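hi! just following up on the protien thing from before. the input was this:
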Amino acid sequence: MGRSVLKGPFVHDSLISKVDGMNSRNEKKVIKTWSRASTVIPDFVGHTFAVHNGNKFIPVYVTENMVGHKFGEFAPTRLFRGHTGNKATDKKASGVPSKGGPSKGGK
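and the predicted 3d structure came back as:
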């Protein structure tokens, strides 16, 4: 269930103050944040945020398409390295014939 419209989107107070200060000085710097639950608001467009994923900070450049989403959506916390398995045994199991196998229709 989403957040109440009456309350408005959740954005950490420090993020709003940092972005407002940078907008008033007309500068662009990377802003570090641990607040993955904060919602991207239109004031953040054009800024780069370093979002913590539990291990390191992932740089996220905010565009107009990201407005309304959470910062955590753009910094994945898990690294998928593919399904495990031995490649040689996978070939045999898939039914690929080997070079020394029986030939078709030979005597």
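The first strand starts at residue 31 and ends at 33.
DSSP finds two helices and three strands in the chain.
cheers
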